[in-house]
Amino acid sequence: MVSGRLKFLILIYVLAAVWLGGCSDSSEEVQEPRLVVEGQIDSDGYPRVFLTLSATADASGGIISENIIRWGVVKLSDGENEVILTGGPMAGVLPPYIYYSYDMVGVPGRSYTLTAEYKDKKVTSEVTMPEPTEIEGVRISGNAADDRSRDLTIMFNSPADAPAYYHLSVRVSGSDNRFYPCTPGTIAVMEGGKRVEMPVYKGNGGLSSGNDREGFTVGERVTVRLARVAPEVYDFWRAWDNAALTGGSVFVGSSVSLPSNISGGYGVWSAQGVSDLDVEIQ
Predict the structure, then answer these.
(1) CB within 10 Å: which end of the chain, N or C, has fewer?
(2) Which 3 state secondary structure label does DSSP give 123?
(3) Which residues contact 262 (CB under 8 A, 6 or more apart)?
(4) CB under 8 Å to 47, separation ≥6 — which residues?
(5) What angle do CA 230, 232, 237 make, to 5 degrees?
(6) What is the pLDDT of residues 196-253, one digit of tens each?
């Protein structure tokens, strides 16, 4: 899976540099590592959590293996039941270790409280899962720059209980089994019953500038995921978009401060209502 560009989850090893760069000056001492969470539970899906220690970027190397947390305790509660997530290796992703459970399924309308502990560190986050919004159509159009490339647009109607906040991601069949965030890939819809058209770009798992909005290649099979998220999760992904689109490396050396809904740590925890659409690019 890891080839060419570093994939999306590499952000967890340099997030500390981002937050510190956005809220401190060079005269301050480097803060102690904190827990970094990147996790979610989807509607009708199971929880998946990646847990690491934050690290400032330097040239010494070795950060990835040193900062993966393999002996953490991760718990999830839906207000009625609590499960302890199982930690284990997972091939094809970075970091190659995941906490998961098949004993709790995401249900829209419920609130999910995540607690993660490692040694003397503890973080918490609570998010309510919105109702999903169905993708109602897709338009595939030619790309003037390349006759083998196609542009993709999805259509949906905003729900009656708007405002609604969305984050878009894509999985390309044959690449790996992970959804990667599109850049740009967020939208907030303030009015109910509004027809929305949203462009879809190939999921970007690297630390590039995000200015190369890649289309899709004829013959590819892709799954587009429209995730309706809580406002605080939208804020995280919106900041991701802004960082990616304003030049330079997305995280390393950035002066932007990403928001987080993780109390006591960094990252993002999302309980999201999802709608998936399989598309064969022709």
Answers:
(1) C
(2) strand
(3) 35, 36, 37, 123, 124, 125, 268, 269
(4) 39, 40, 41, 76, 83, 85, 99, 100, 101, 104, 106, 112, 114
(5) 95
(6) 999 998 876 543 334 446 788 888 899 999 999 999 999 999 988 887 776 544 444 3
Kindly state the tokens that stand for 254. 């950035």
For the chain, how are helix, strand and coil distributed in percent, rounded to 5?
A: 10, 45, 45
Q: What is the pTM of this model?
A: 0.82
The CA-CA-CA angle for residues 117, 121, 125, to 5°, reads 60
* Residue 232: its H or E element: helix 231-245
Query: What gap in Å lies between CA 266 and CA 127, rounded to an integer?
Result: 15
Bridge-based pairing state of the strands 35-42 and 266-280 = parallel
Element (DSSP H or E) covering residue 17: helix 15-23
- As given in the structure block, the two tokens for residue 4 are 């060419």
| Torsion of Cα atoms, 42 then 272 then 278 then 214, to 10° | -120
Model confidence at 152: pLDDT above 50: yes
One-letter identity of residue 6: L
Dump the DSSP string for 166-199. EEEEEEETTT-S--EEEEEEEEEE-STT-EEEEE
